[in-house]
Amino acid sequence: MRVIYSEDHKLRDARTELYAGQLVTPFEAPFRAEWILAAVKEAGFADVAAPDAHGLDTARKVHDPAYLDFLATVWDRWVAAGFEGEAIANSFPVRRTSQRVPDNIVGAIGHYANAADTSITKGSYEAAIASMRCAITGADWLNAGNRFAFALCRPPGHHAGIDLFGGYCFINNAGVAAQRLIDHGAKKVAVLDVDFHHGNGTQDLFYHRGDVFTASLHGDPLFAFPYFLGHADEEGEGQGTGTNRNYPMPPHTPWQVWSSALADALARIKAFGAEAIVVALGVDTFERDPISFFQLKSEDFIRMGEMISAAGLPVVTCMEGGYGVPEIGLNVANVLKGLEA
Ligand code: SP5
Ligand code: ZN
């Protein structure tokens, strides 16, 4: 298992998250990656490498280039407008509105946001690029003929859509990794999203494509973020018809139920003919995660890795969510252990 990690994740260190009507210290903070790195090293995963210095070529195949330009410039535009707080969207194009991109930065940030939980700060873009580079480098480890890589991505990516940021995500790392595998010659790949939250961004990237199967196991959007996508009847469209699968599950879902959804997703990934799996790994399914409502225990994450490994495919794992508690490191290390068992 090669681990890919960049110190540049620390450039993403927001002071504010709009939560419960207050600006709180963000759940998605630098300590997460530090704790996870320490725990995977402690568990014996000592092959840690820095990412290669990739540009945006792969990202431009899954994201709108104008959106990537927005990400690159939003902080400077926000500062130039004279604003003193972090950049937070507060006005959105919703039902019955134009989808033209406003020139005004407050309008532009609302246009490109799918949630107001994510403040943009100086350094957020640079950290997102470093995170994306970890994912690409992980995909390339598979392209070189290896079976397992762990891209310790931070910030996470699975809520980032074609032209949308939010849910602590800016560039869809797992989606970029999938594209990288395709560009290297894979005919079909799968993104398996086991984060507590629906992978709305990843679903958006590949909804009309037949070469990438997307599966997401998550808290039912009727009760959980991202609220507006992730229902079981979203199955893909056009060329992508039948290539998206959602497993929404209710509050207090335990491993026994969750794991039967995982078994179904893996069977569909095999039937689809995927040549590799990109795992979007959130450990916010843990029973003591501060913002989620599943009941997985630390030992369940070993079984999770074992089940995914039993599909017999190369696996690049990209870090997504998992918050607050010290066990996030152990839980990630347990998935990696299960994969290599
Ligand atoms: C990558 C990832 O896991 N992103 C999640 C973003 C969630 N942001 C909104 C959080 C709202 C949580 N509300 C939960 C109430 C718990 N009492
Ligand atoms: Zn999550």
TrEMBL record:
<dbReference type="GO" id="GO:0040029">
    <property type="term" value="P:epigenetic regulation of gene expression"/>
</dbReference>
<dbReference type="InterPro" id="IPR023696">
    <property type="entry name" value="Ureohydrolase_dom_sf"/>
</dbReference>
<dbReference type="GO" id="GO:0004407">
    <property type="term" value="F:histone deacetylase activity"/>
</dbReference>
<keyword id="KW-0479">Metal-binding</keyword>
<keyword id="KW-0862">Zinc</keyword>
<protein>
    <submittedName>
        <fullName>Acetoin utilization deacetylase AcuC-like enzyme</fullName>
    </submittedName>
</protein>
<comment type="similarity">
    <text>Belongs to the histone deacetylase family.</text>
</comment>
<dbReference type="Pfam" id="PF00850">
    <property type="entry name" value="Hist_deacetyl"/>
</dbReference>
<dbReference type="GO" id="GO:0016787">
    <property type="term" value="F:hydrolase activity"/>
</dbReference>
<dbReference type="InterPro" id="IPR023801">
    <property type="entry name" value="His_deacetylse_dom"/>
</dbReference>
<dbReference type="InterPro" id="IPR000286">
    <property type="entry name" value="HDACs"/>
</dbReference>
<feature type="domain" description="Histone deacetylase">
    <location>
        <begin position="28"/>
        <end position="338"/>
    </location>
</feature>
<dbReference type="InterPro" id="IPR037138">
    <property type="entry name" value="His_deacetylse_dom_sf"/>
</dbReference>
<dbReference type="GO" id="GO:0046872">
    <property type="term" value="F:metal ion binding"/>
</dbReference>
<keyword id="KW-0378">Hydrolase</keyword>
